[in-house]
User: Fold these one by one.
Assistant:
Number 1:
Amino acid sequence: MQQRVLVEMATFSSTHCPSYSYSSSIKGGQNQHFAFSSSFLRLSVPAKAKFFLQSQTSSYQSAVLMQDGAVATKVNPVEKETPLKKLKNELLSVTSSEEWDEKACFDINENESTVSITVVGASGDLAKKKIFPALFALYYEDCLPKHFTVYGYARSKMTDAELRNMVSKTLTCRIDKRENCGEKMDQFLKRCFYHSGQYDSEENFAQLDKKLKEHEGGRVSNRLFYLSIPPNIFIDAVKCASLSASSGNGWTRVIVEKPFGRDSESSAALTKALKQYLAEDQIFRIDHYLGKELVENLSVLRFSNLIFEPLWSRQYIRNVQLIFSEDFGTEGRGGYFDHYGIIRDIMQNHLLQILALFAMETPVSLDAEDIRNEKVKVLRSMRPLQLDDVVIGQYKSHTKGGISYPAYTDDNTVPKDSLTPTFAAAALFIDNARWDGVPFLMKAGKALHNKRAEIRVQFRHVPGNLYNRNFGTDLDRATNELVIRVQPDEAIYLKINNKVPGLGMRLDRSNLNLHYAARYSKEIPDAYERLLLDAIEGERRLFIRSDELDAAWALFTPVLKELEEKKIIPEYYPYGSRGPVGAHYLAARYNVRWGDLGVDQ
Ligand SMILES: NC(=O)C1=CN([C@@H]2O[C@H](COP(=O)(O)OP(=O)(O)OC[C@H]3O[C@@H](n4cnc5c(N)ncnc54)[C@H](OP(=O)(O)O)[C@@H]3O)[C@@H](O)[C@H]2O)C=CC1
Ligand SMILES: O=C1O[C@H](COP(=O)(O)O)[C@@H](O)[C@H](O)[C@H]1O
């Protein structure tokens, strides 16, 4: 008996979804922009056909091995008219017709497959603020498959109409495309439903399953569960969703929100528990910073510009700074935050992910596994953070212009004697040939003077600089600095020295500036849009693999334990200030000045 495998083909057509392109991730593909389309072909074929398909990179631009040995192939869009016939003929040319079962071959076209997206924790903050608006934006941009249903699931009692009313208050339209917005919203809301249930009730999830099946109407059903719930109930929800509401004939994927544990042990326990119910390739651990436009652009900047990559090492780079600041406090999330603190909330994930993309070696390809392999390697080359290399702070109340701003511990859900840091600065090092000795400084804080996320790359001094005397004693001011402003007001600018026009010889500092708002009229999509679309597409590049997570926790767990065991008291800083002065001393120890605090930022 021949071993049989499942082959899945998706034909891509040029939809209106402009924000999405697969061209970059397809080996041998041309630079075409094409996007999600739900036309699938699923075949049960003899195993040898699988290898045939994988070799057909000209007709089938990529063949990706999926769970259970299935192969997902993406078909060249120009051939989208005849995928079934073409594939069948080509399969027949390498196998005899009796070898494959005609009955097991079925065409899952637009009318026969569906995607159900269940937002678990639909009544919560993240669902309202980010997930429903992102789903609507995808719908508005024509990026969702033809047949999709959105289900809200939570314990709160709500009717479909009440959910729709709640969701409608959060939806906005793209600034540059307001046409038919109201109409589109109504259409989207009609596809949204609600089911009330407990997170640990298989019975309640079975009821959800029944409702999903009614919407799926016998089509091949693909199901995405977005766990937008507190971490202590992740496992219950995964267990119930997987046992009682998995798809019977399509894929089932689960997006898991951070925090993924609070140290190495709890993270490993979470991974182990998740893997009781899901395979690794069904788990999509989200770090929404990876979906931000300028974070995605990091690889393009590095690997498609000749001028940057040669400079990307200890030879030319003096230090790298990863800076996150928010101009508001924990506001309503104090209960969650106090258990985690800023190092776990921002540094161990968002900033470290940016660092990994910034510092990794060139991946073999743009495939998810190749990129994630390189990220793991660089994380594993890093030295665990030392207590001496960390400064922590906590905001205290402050009155400015007659307005009084609260202290962190004024939050009712935070213990009055909490030592949880709301600010931290840290110096990290990568012990590999490229980065040996280069400090990677991180700074993250809440209730600071501004809201910003950026990467600053400070280059070395020009050796034997002919113009040294024009700079005075402050040579640092004359060095080049590359700033990648992730948010707000996305930009990439390079600080250079130039001559002030005129007869004299005065030098000036100027910015070569790629300012996104000036360069592109299109609004930048929210990170959650990109990530949701990727999860629907099965694209894992921007999600965290379990070994990445282990490596990330290994760097921070010892110092987090030490801070807690030694009950290190944070340095208090006023709400709305630039944070504790200790951050400057830490940077100074490595001859660094924070770039965001200079006169010409
Ligand atoms: N909010 C944000 O900005 C961000 C959140 N996250 C992560 O996303 C997830 C969701 O966040 P968020 O929406 O803020 O969370 P919420 O605290 O708003 O919780 C979401 C929903 O879960 C249910 N819930 C809350 N507490 C409990 C509990 N103790 N036991 C059982 N159910 C509970 C509630 O629904 P009901 O009572 O109706 O069942 C609530 O509406 C969390 O893991 C969070 O860490 C990550 C990044 C940013
Ligand atoms: O994950 C988190 O991120 C937000 C900041 O996200 P942003 O996209 O608005 O920059 C932060 O406020 C929150 O504490 C943290 O959990």
Number 2:
Amino acid sequence: MSFAPSSPPSVSQQQRAPTTPSTARVMPTNVMNTPTAPQGTSAPSTTGAAAPAAPSTTSSANAPNTPGTEIRGRERQGSFGGSTRAKVLKPFNTANIKILLLENVNETAVRALRDQGYQVETHAKALAEDVLIEKIKDVHCVGIRSKTKLTKKVLDAAEKLGVIGCFCIGTNQVDLEHAASKGIAVFNSPFSNSRSVAELVIAEIVLLSRQLGDRNNEMHQGIWSKVSANCYEIRGKTLGIVGYGHIGSQLSVLAESMGMRVYFHDVVPLMPLGTSKQVGSLDELLEISDFVTLHVPETEDTKNMIGEHELNKMKQGSFLINASRGTVVQISALAKALRSGHIGGAAVDVFPKEPAANGKFFESELIGCPNTLLTPHIGGSTEEAQSMIGVEVSQALIKFINNGTSIGAVNFPEVDLRAIRDEENSIRLCYTHANVPGVLLRITNILADHNVDKQFSDSKGKIAYLMADISDVTPEQIQDIYRRVSETPTNIVTRVLY
Ligand SMILES: NC(=O)C1=CN([C@@H]2O[C@H](COP(=O)(O)OP(=O)(O)OC[C@H]3O[C@@H](n4cnc5c(N)ncnc54)[C@H](O)[C@@H]3O)[C@@H](O)[C@H]2O)C=CC1
Ligand SMILES: O=C(O)C(=O)COP(=O)(O)O
């Protein structure tokens, strides 16, 4: 999928791209956006760049599909008039699709992607930026978790990248806008680890309330210190939730079942679950809560959301929990409030700077603060969550690579079509383009002499995405459609699937 340049490609850029098929049906380097001959048809003669040999597939667990065979493991998708079978789209040899999975992405994902015949390279850790820049150069898809930063600089090094999978909830580690401008869709797992985070927070509420971290530390040092002063039941206490999304609302239900009163603050009005109540401002929430827990995404608005002013607003001896993002809390202000006793304890799972890998040194002003639980970003780290995330994100990636479906993308217009007719000479056009007036007319003109079975397009910010299924096209016409669409001045990425 060489996924095209960030700005609409110039004619010379287009000329460099291999836009003509190989007679040998070996996939060109730009495997995901360059049409070859449809199955069962003879390929037109080639005049373009010589097609490179297919790369080795040593990292692929399964035997790759040979060119011209169907992609395995794909479901048929519903029926439609005139044909009972949905076509399995295969415009490229799946063995030529290179996928880089970092940060110990779950085995469920590795298996699902290898089952497609893709080449999958896995790494247990995040990569240093220079290594990442080298590795990302020729991959079509990268899978990451919360640690890998896909900055503009890294994305600009990725010559063929078409899709990113964040095998987690947060997507703040990716420059989403820049990715979109290059036609790179980003998928995440919006709720597969929410329950794991909510359960951890429930545990932390009890642990903080009973000063369990400190008692445990003392016991490991051989110190017996039985105290009840400032230790409380959580029943009847007030939990203040900041950010009432998937995690916050799940937590709300669990906390009420433990006998807590729940209030929440969110930037949008939301239906309170159980008997919880939304309050009008953050300050109001801070003033009434015995426990404050943060479940907001990292955005410009949430950076340093909890600093000295907010900590002072919190009740004397109340507790703070942060399992959202490290940048949401000013660490020095929190350390000061803990040491002064104004804040009775804190549980912190996320930090502004987190070590790159297990075994690396962790440094924080919070080390040694009283009744302070520090955990290494494990909110979503359960077997259940990781396995579900692996399945969910890998399916989204497969659907995008094989079918062009962008449903669930966080930075991209969400577009899907009913299954394409199971006919040799039907194709699916996937066109990512600049969201400016006049584009649809131009595409309609290109497709004017063809039978467009169905078409859908949507936009998000500066980019738009169109999918169209076209029947009764010859291999020469496929080349012509591909060439003319990809040469439009608004083109970001054009793919033809068949
Ligand atoms: N510690 C860990 O391992 C994990 C951490 N997370 C973090 O938790 C965050 C929240 O996750 P979800 O609940 O799934 O997200 P979500 O998107 O479902 O909910 C976030 C809520 O925060 C609200 N919000 C946004 N800006 C706000 C502001 N300035 N003030 C008040 N409310 C605001 C939104 O309206 C939304 O209701 C993620 O973005 C991620 O960064 C998620 C999973 C695991
Ligand atoms: O899902 C998230 O946003 C998380 O913070 C979990 O990140 P992780 O997959 O543990 O790197």
Number 3:
Amino acid sequence: MTHLPSTSRNGMAEATEAVEIRPGLHWIGALDPGLRTFDIILRTANGTTYNSYLVRGSDGVAVIDTVKAEFADDFFARLESVARYDEIKVIVLNHLEPDHTGALPELMRRAPQARLHISTRAPAMLKALLKPSEEHPLEYQAVDTGDEVSLGDRTLRFLHTPFLHWPDTQCTYLVEEATLFSGDVFGCHHCDSRMFNEQCGDFRFAFDYYYAHIMRPFKTHVMDALKLIEPLPLQIIAPTHGPILRDRPRRYLTRYRELSTSTFAERIGNEEPTLVVFYMSSYGNTARMAESIRTGAEEAGARVSLYDLEGGEIQPFVDLVESADALAFGSPTINGDAVKPIWDLLSSLAVIELKGKLGAAFGSYGWTGEAVRMIEDRMRGLKMRVPVAGLRIKLIPTDEELAECRDFGRALASAIVSGEKGRVIDFADLG
Ligand SMILES: Cc1cc2nc3c(=O)[nH]c(=O)nc-3n(C[C@H](O)[C@H](O)[C@H](O)COP(=O)(O)O)c2cc1C
């Protein structure tokens, strides 16, 4: 029988009974319909859920993930509706983020015999979380892909899926029920007390939004995880946030694959080296530099796009950055800094993988010219490679200086082609 947690008129969850997914397999999480901002960075128009699961086997019970600390009472009430604490043999933590480990210390106190199962990347983090001492040592089992724990007639098998979205992330597969406890993978912030995907409202937007903000920086790790998950028989995906995916669960794997190869460049690869030049300019000086850089880079075989940040919006620019092989940012120095739209774009790039992408900075200045160095520092901070030394030109560029800009563009294009790593090219020598 399925018990659905009811909601009161103000939308808050009231009932605290477990939801049966299958006999001996229950959702024992918590609903948080009032939440509007998650982890500072994510908006949610109808809250979220913290999903925790209980698996009963012939030889013991496993609890998979817990909930945020404020929701511990709901979690324990739901757990108690289907199991006793002394039956719990295994606690699995698919990653150690606080919204899934908030109730862990209290669960460990109530079920001291239960053995923690965490990924091989998690021990240091677990110690930082639980602060063990000589008096209270920490015991756990670190598990890797293929390791299993038996609950008698049911088996949990682990899949190492790091960086989705914490370094210690793993997924746990309940073999006999073809059920994947996927942690935050395939999750979303969507609170619907009906819990199952075919019964909930349309959450496709929330699913894609969650991916875009949480998983997108880790696309290569998503693809690695899919290689482990796709061959599995799959009847249910049980993530830690949002609906339980039991109706055609494979659609969500397909969607992750699409989203992880969603840019044109990722699908077919850039046919020629691509450089995107973003700039701002009040009197046209930095703009003239940008145009000459384009000319030089094109002469060296790059396909160049030139964008004045004044005329665009951040989101499409972020997509452009993701597809480009190299980026150049041009800013005049204004009051000892680069201009705000440059920083706005640079501060919006954390959602994509930038490691190893090429970057360069240029700009006109009047007397101190700090902007170029500041942009370079930021790009290095984002783990981009900066292979060509930044180019500053005092006030209005002369013909000779515009020729320098062309050399700069040519050097940047050459760096894309040669794949130079980290070496600073003196563009003036490339003539
Ligand atoms: C309000 C204002 C503040 C400026 N502050 C600086 C500064 O702190 N350091 C500097 O080197 N140049 C400064 N400049 C000079 C500009 O960087 C210079 O005029 C540059 O050539 C403008 O390039 P653009 O035409 O691409 O905007 C300032 C200019 C303005 C209008």
